[in-house]
Amino acid sequence: MFKGITRRWILSTMLVTFLIVILIATGIIYTTVYLFNNEVERDLTSVSDQLNSVFENYKTDNSTSFTSGAQDYIENFRYKEKMEVMAINSSGRIILTSTGFSYDDNENLPDFEAAKSSKDGSAFWRGTIGSGESVMSLTRVITNSNGTAIGAIRYLVSIAEVNNRIVIISIIIIASSLFILFLIVMSSSYFIRSIVTPVKELSDTARKIARGDFSTKLEKHYNDEIGELCDAITDMSKDLENTEQMKNDFISRVSHELRTPLTAIKGWAETMQISGRRKLDRKTFDKGMDVIIKESGRLTGIVEELLDFSRIQTGRMVLLNEKLDILAELDEVIYMLRDRAVNEGKHLLYDEPVEVFPPVYGDRNRLKQVFINVIDNALKYTPEGGVVAIEVKYNSQENPDNIIITITDTGCGISADDLPKVKEKFYKANQKVNGSGIGLAVADEIMLLHKGTLEIESGVGVGTTVTLTLPVLREG
User: Fold this and answer.
1) pTM of this prediction?
2) CA 184, CA 203: separation in Å to the nearest integer?
């Protein structure tokens, strides 16, 4: 019936709370009984204190004189309406009472026997007399000058009213405790439901998300930690849904990117195979081989990009760092891409700085990969007749720790909505242009591994600027 959080709550909190309430109620009832009985005892003790002066002249007399004195004391007793007083002889027999009624000689007087053996000559007793009435008594022994008991005075008071008060107060305490326990149960039930129900919904939603149902909506009931968790799971579901969509788009793009060169390679291979049975002219052969080599390289690039992305995701990318001249590496990449820019009718502008730049510490092949990726993107999104400008800056006074490389194009630009996402995995802002959509993600990770940064500024219709920042090598 009870399991999980509910069971732990009942065992660790509610049972302890119940025990505390019960102990407090029991303690209050016990204290009430003690205080009421103690009050009756104080009243009896206060009345009996006058015996010291009343029987002072009888301590040296015999029992007959004690009987006379006791009769005089009882007749003049002021509290007859509140309690009964009686005289007991030395043998334990009641000889006089303030009520005038005789007592059974066989009636047990435990307080008399206890008083004779006590140090102060007095004893209390609480019990029920022959009529069934609850009473409390105090017996004080009267002794002569030799210390011999010549009799005793016993005070008897009914405690039925006191017991009734104790019962009423106990009922009130028990009822209050039950009411408190009821409130605790109700509040605890509400509190448990306020936790268990949302947690169960969270669990069900998490299972649906795990099965790939990202459309599941999670209702937020409270503005607390549970509510924040609901918001977090809702945001996670949306992010997973977007990621799933981007992943599917990515798979579709990569499939297309792989299929295109494979189709070209297969087509030209079949053409050359069929034509090989006849005499194949040199021009067709060279064209076919050029296509096969070009598309094979393109295919290799896609596969390498995917492998790099996998290495980064699993933390297995290892840099082969060394001291290198960043301008030489950048110049080599620009030289590689300049012919492509000319063939596409685009202007690739770069003026190599004349001053000497400090070296950097990094992996030359990975840094070349970043340069190729960024410049390739710039050329890809720049229309015919457009410009891609590359600039390298180093200011030993204002910024002596970093070399800054900027690649600016006059392409279509990136919208404000897409700009924060272009470095995310699988994301591709422009679906019309070929590409896997992970190039910038890989480039950004490579820059981070070099303790550098890759920042993008762009606007639709005004082009894009990519800023690469690399720390210089501090030797010694």
Assistant:
1) 0.51
2) 27
Q: Encoding tokens for residue 58?
A: 């009888």
User: Residue 469's beta-bridge partner residues?
Assistant: 404, 453
Q: Backbone phi, then psi, for 469, in 5-degree steps?
A: -120, 125
Fold adopted by 49-158 = Beta-Lactamase (3.30.450)
Average pLDDT over residues 184-196: 76
Residue keyed to tokens 């990449």: 333
Q: Which fold has domain 225-313?
A: Helix Hairpins (1.10.287)
Domain positions in the chain? 49-158, 225-313, 322-471
Query: Class of the 322-471 domain?
Result: alpha beta
In angstroms, the CA 428 to CA 421 distance is 8
Q: How far apart are CA 15 and CA 88, in angstroms?
A: 55
Write out pLDDT tens, residues 128-175.
Answer: 887 788 889 999 988 877 777 888 899 999 888 888 999 999 999 999
The CA–CA distances, whole Å, from 439 to 180, 302, 346, 382 equal 66, 10, 22, 17
Q: Are 264 and 295 in contact (CB under 8 A)?
A: yes
Q: What percent of the chain has pLDDT over 70?
A: 87
- Dist. CA 187–CA 180, nearest whole Å: 10
- Cβ(302)–Cβ(257) below 8 Å: yes
Q: Mean of the pLDDT values across residues 237-246?
A: 76
- Amino acid at site 221: H
Query: For the segment 9-28, what is each residue's pLDDT rounded down to a tens digit?
Result: 666 677 788 888 899 999 99
Residue indicated by tokens 């924060």? 420
pLDDT confidence of residue 1: 43
Specify whether the CB–CB gap between 178 and 153 falls below 8 A: no
